[in-house]
Amino acid sequence: MPIKRALISVSNKKGIDELAKTLQKAGVEILSTGGTARFLEDAGVSITKVSDVTGFPEIMDGRVKTLHPKIHGGILADRSKDAHIKAMEEHGIPPIDMVVVNLYPFEATIAKKDVTLPEAVEQIDIGGPAMLRAAAKNFAHVLIVVDPDDYSWIIPKVEKGEDFSLEERKALAAKAFAHTARYDGIISSYLSREDGFPVYLSVPLRRELELRYGENPHQKAAFYAISGHPVGMANLKQLQGKQLSFNNIYDLNAATLLAMEFTSECVTVIVKHNTPCGVGKGEKLIEAYTKAWDCDPVSAYGGIIVCTAPVDRDVAERIVSVFVEVLAAPAYTEEALKILSAKENLRVILLDPWPRIEDEEFEYKGVMGGLLVQERDAGLVEHDPPKVVTEREPTPDEWEAMLFGWKVVKHVRSNAILFSLKDRTLGIGSGQTSRVDSVKIAGMKARSSLQGAAMASDAFFPFPDGIEEAAKLGITAVIQPGGSIRDKEVIEAANAHNMAMVFTGMRHFRH
């Protein structure tokens, strides 16, 4: 089925002049309208204006131009049906064999700072999706092209006069429907984002990376980015190293979320198997890195490292002296990048712009047949100061140690226990079904004295045994949500050991 007439109306004009010139050289009549028509004419392409076909001008600031029977009839006509051919002849409807359309830049518009609702609404395309869907429905007779990346293989076929197979047409139609579905999803998400949890939730996704495999080599995997998010894993820039894997991205996400708690401070976070194994803070990044690594160097081996400050020579030299899977930071010095390049497989990631917690409204967890959706856990005690429940008040150092630990423990798998000073983690116990076991494991993992350290717990202590175990290790201050039916017994145990304990009233389970 030769292409005799093509309709071209695109927002993204990448490569459209080359495609149009190729079609024109092949004898194809080109219909166009608005900005696309002007662009093609400036490029030296002869076009027939849509208004000349419809006999009706563009009206309402261009909102109505292609919504006309002579356009949609030409696209939707089933060429295998005599009645459709007869209708075209009776009404003077020219058949359209190819539709090249992409849509108004709604996504780019809402990504702009301080965009207004009327500005966003004006970028909701109406005629474009209608033509896309019409052509995609009639793919057996109409070639539908929505992605400029497809021009690279379409142009050679047009030049050679080759036909497009039914499978090729169907694949292009599927892409067109996916494009309009994603487009509508972005609009729906934007218009309903103040509605809490809408009845119908659209999560527009785009495949960004095909991964080598999933969590294990026998599992296939890919990374899909949520459209409309200004920051996140889709915006990272890989400067060197092997391709990112499923586990790399998952762990990097966990490490970045934790690092975001300390955006304005100089901090290093180390994550292994989606669980923190060291966090350190310092005046200089090398101090923060050293504190984080020294917390648990055995677990840190082969880990994911995220720094909140630019990586310099000192940190780079330490990184290349050990095995690290991924290093991410907001910036790198040229000297640091040169040093890091010695480790060819090390994945070096630039997080620019640095993500913010408030940009992540929801988080999603997959279950069989659906998604669990919840607000991101952005709770911080700065907004609701903890309440001292023991006889002894915490010292200033204990307060700092507890608040440092509280920021970190919310990112540790439940049941989560964390020992810390004011600038570093000392021991982490995670993922246990018994809280007292997490206390014991955190103590076992500690490589330095815990005398005078603070303990953070992501949820309440159901029994005093966790406090008793912590006291044996030298812990002197505890921060926890409170809320157990045995809170009184837990407080009494803390008083018996002269511990200071505060309740936050906020739980931080992470399953």
End-to-end distance? 56 Å
Number of helices: 19
- Measured as a percent range, the helix fraction is 25-40%
State the shape.
elongated
Q: What would you report as the Rg, rounded to the nearest angstrom?
A: 30 Å
CATH topology of the largest domain: Rossmann fold
- At the first level of CATH, what is the class of the largest domain? Alpha Beta
Describe this structure in words.
- It is a single chain.
- The chain is of the alpha/beta class.
- Helices cover 37% and strands 19% of the residues.
- It is built from 19 helices and 21 strands.
- The chain has helices at 16-25, 34-42, 50-54, 69-76, 82-91, 106-110, 117-122, 127-137, 151-160, 166-192, 246-259, 285-295, 297-300, 313-320, 334-340, 396-409, 435-445, 465-473, 487-496; strands at residues 5-9, 29-32, 48-49, 98-101, 143-145, 205-210, 222-226, 237-240, 267-272, 275-281, 304-307, 326-329, 347-350, 362-367, 370-375, 387-388, 417-421, 424-429, 454-457, 477-480, 500-503.
- The strands form five sheets. A six-stranded mixed beta sheet has the order 8-13-12-11-9-10. A six-stranded mixed beta sheet has the order 16-21-20-19-17-18. A five-stranded parallel beta sheet has the order 3-2-1-4-5, sandwiched between helices.
- The two termini are 56 Å apart.
- The model has no long low-confidence stretch (mean pLDDT 89).
